[in-house]
């Protein structure tokens, strides 16, 4: 029994000696300079991207072929200064242009006709969120 213990102690001693002879791993120095934050482009705020979507949709769906955005006369009324102005509709009279009015004007072009303009706007298959985007765009055209 004693021999076994001594043998084990020897083995242990050998192991320890072997370990002790191992070179200490050199510690990796901590970086002293804080890493500079990566230059990631800030994503556009939702409203800005909505406006941009509206602008693109207006172009893709041909709206801008009939509606100017700079006050110029065209087949349809200009979108410049449209949001918030008082528009006169055939058979209805003056209305303040807001989101509700614009939604109807875009969804059902023949439902409300702006006085002085023909019932010439074609219908479209725009989705609600697309109409919202176009309205957001129109609202920026002061
Ligand atoms: C072929 C020409 C034409 C196209 C294309 C057209 N419109 Fe019109 N739009 C008109 C005309 C004309 C009116 C005025 C008569 C009326 O109220 O429907 C009008 C009226 C409007 C009005 C109401 C303006 C006001 O002064 O109250 C809005 C808003 C509008 N259009 C949005 C759109 C959008 C959005 C599109 C694209 C999806 C579009 N239009 C495409 C001709 C057009």
**Molecules bound to protein:** heme C
The arrangement of helices and strands along the chain is: HHEEHH
Secondary structure tally: strands? 2
Which shape, going by the Cα principal axes? rod-shaped
Largest sheet: 2 strands, antiparallel
Mean pLDDT across the residues is: 85
Q: Count helical runs.
A: 4
Q: How does the helix and strand content classify structurally?
A: mainly alpha
Order of strands, main sheet, comes to: 1-2
Q: Any idea what the CATH superfamily of one domain is called?
A: Cytochrome c-like domain
Which architecture of one domain does the CATH hierarchy give at level 2? Orthogonal Bundle
What is the CATH topology classification name of one domain?
A: Cytochrome Bc1 Complex, Chain D, domain 2
CATH class membership of one domain: Mainly Alpha
Helix-residue proportion: 40-55%
How far apart the termini lie comes to: 99 Å
Poorly predicted spans:
12-19
Radius of gyration: 37 Å
Residue fraction in strands: 5-15%
């Amino acid at each position: 029994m004693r021999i076994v213990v001594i043998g084990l102690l020897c083995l242990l001693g050998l192991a320890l000696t072997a370990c002790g002879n191992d070179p200490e791993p050199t510690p990796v120095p901590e970086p002293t300079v804080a890493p500079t934050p990566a230059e990631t482009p800030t994503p556009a705020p939702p409203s800005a991207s909505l406006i941009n979507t509206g602008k693109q949709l207006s172009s893709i769906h041909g709206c801008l072929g009939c509606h100017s955005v700079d006050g110029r006369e065209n087949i349809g009324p200009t979108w410049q200064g449209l949001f918030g102005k008082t528009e006169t509709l055939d058979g209805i009279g003056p209305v303040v242009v807001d989101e509700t009015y614009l939604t109807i004007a875009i969804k059902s072009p023949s439902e409300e006709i702006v006085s002085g303009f023909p019932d010439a706007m074609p219908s479209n298959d725009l989705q609600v969120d697309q109409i919202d985007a176009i309205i957001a765009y129109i609202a920026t055209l002061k």
